[in-house]
Structure formats: C-alpha cells, structure tokens
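Tokens as discussed.
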C-alpha cells in the first residue's frame, strides 16, 4: 500500500523497529540488500548503502521525486527490517516487500530495474470484469465507515470514545446514524457508540475497523472495449445493511467509473477515482 493510499484513509500506521537490535544482525541484513530496489511501476524506490544508511524515494503527482533519508533498522526477533516506516521482508534474492500493516497486498520492490517483471498487455473487458467482480465489495470507504485499527479491540464493545471515525459517506448518512444511536460527537470529533460496536456489522476490515453500511453487488462493465483503464464506465447495486435500510430505502443501481491499475503483478480496481 502506497503512501497516497494512507493519506486516502486519513491515517498513518508507522512500523518502528524495537530496541534490542544488534549491529551484527543489521550488518548481515545490509549485505543481502545493499543497492537500489525499484517498485514495479518505477514510481518508488528504496536504496541501501554499505554504511547502513538508506533512502526511500517516491515520485509524486507533481513530477518531482521526494526522498526521505534514514538508516537500516531491524526487529529484535524475526527477519523483517526497515528503512523509515513500514516493515520490509526479503522474499527472494531479488524481491522484497514493504507492508504498512493496514491490510491489502504489500508493495513489491525489485533489485534493479532489470529484475522488474514485464507489464501485461492491454486491459481487456474480460479481465476488467473479473477484477471488478472480485474487488467491488472489498471493504472501502464506499461501503464501510472506518475507524483506526489502533483504536479497535474485538473484545471491546463498550462506548469508550476510542473509535473515532476517519471516513464518512455523506453528511445525510452521518446524521441518520447519529439519530439512530450509532454515532455521537465527543470533543468535536465523531465516534462510534456502543450500539455500533455491538453490531454484527462492526468488524475488523483489512487492518482497519469499521461499520459496514452496504454491500456492492452485480457490478458490470458498460463498454465493449477499454480505451482508458483509468476511466471505465461501470454499474453496480448498493444493497443496504439492516442498519441503513431506513436511509437507502431499497436496493439502488448506481452508474459510476472505475480506475484499473497494474500493481504488485496484479490488476487493482478503484471506484470513481483516477490513478496516479
């Protein structure tokens, strides 16, 4: 998951090495990873230097490279290591992954551009439909109101104000859920109540936690060809959960757009958004 995605959820979960790491362990890791590692889309890189320093670069939409300097770190136990935020794992001689701990597929990096696998050919309608069908109902801000995972304990169903909302659907839905006792405002921020946290629709979801407000079903591509993968007309049904049936009223058919990108050797889909 890229930094842009973290901003989208309006929350960051930074993984920091614990104390107790040994210089010998770090030196052993550095020998294996020294050099420049590049993401498949060539928009991110991690570079490890022989002296133990490292840098993390990302190409922003403004066309400029933004680089953070850091040092190689390691956990006291296990094989994961770090360069700044995120947990890095060497999964092959020329491949490592970075995971921010927020669910989804870890981002892959390859030792030098020569080891990056080739991109697939043109996106077909058949492939787009398979991806759309598989991913349309994954927990996102389109069907779930999120709180941060750090504030969520599956055993905690009390109203302790430790579940602030970090995403909203519409002001009207928020007002509806507030009126029905699922959300309240404390100290200027909206939080889930005990009623929401006791609901079977309040669950952990991909490193986050949230209240499921609808299911997205029967998604289909509305064009015969895909000239622009970032702007594909689609249609799907919004099926309300029991707690939002009074708001949505009934199943609603929605026409929208999906953006498809090839990340980590697989096609990904995003609703109503343009890929960077």
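Sequence:
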């Amino acid at each position: 998951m890229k930094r842009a995605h973290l901003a989208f959820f309006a929350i960051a979960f930074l993984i920091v090495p614990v104390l107790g790491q040994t210089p010998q362990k770090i030196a052993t890791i550095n020998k294996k990873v020294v050099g420049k590692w590049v993401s498949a889309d060539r928009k991110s890189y991690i570079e490890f230097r022989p002296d133990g320093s490292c840098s993390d670069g990302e190409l922003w939409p403004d066309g400029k490279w933004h680089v953070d300097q850091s040092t190689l770190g390691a956990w006291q136990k296990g094989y994961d290591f770090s360069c700044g935020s995120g947990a890095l794992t060497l999964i092959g001689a020329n491949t490592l992954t970075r995971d921010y701990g927020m669910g989804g597929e870890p981002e892959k990096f390859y030792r030098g551009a020569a080891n990056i696998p080739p991109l697939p050919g043109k996106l077909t309608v058949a492939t787009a439909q398979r991806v759309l069908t598989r991913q349309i109902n994954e927990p996102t801000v389109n069907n779930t109101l999120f709180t941060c995972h750090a504030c969520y304990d599956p055993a905690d169903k009390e109203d302790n104000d430790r579940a602030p909302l970090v995403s909203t659907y519409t002001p009207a839905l928020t007002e509806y859920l507030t009126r029905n006792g699922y959300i309240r405002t404390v100290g200027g921020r909206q939080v889930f109540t005990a009623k929401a946290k006791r609901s079977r629709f309040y669950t952990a979801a991909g490193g986050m936690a949230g209240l499921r407000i609808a299911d997205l079903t029967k998604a289909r591509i509305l064009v015969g060809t895909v000239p622009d993968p970032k702007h594909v007309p689609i249609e799907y049904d919004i099926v309300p959960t029991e707690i939002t049936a009074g708001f949505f009223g009934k199943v609603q058919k929605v026409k929208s757009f999906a953006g498809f990108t090839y990340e980590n050797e697989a096609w990904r889909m995003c609703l109503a958004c343009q890929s960077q």
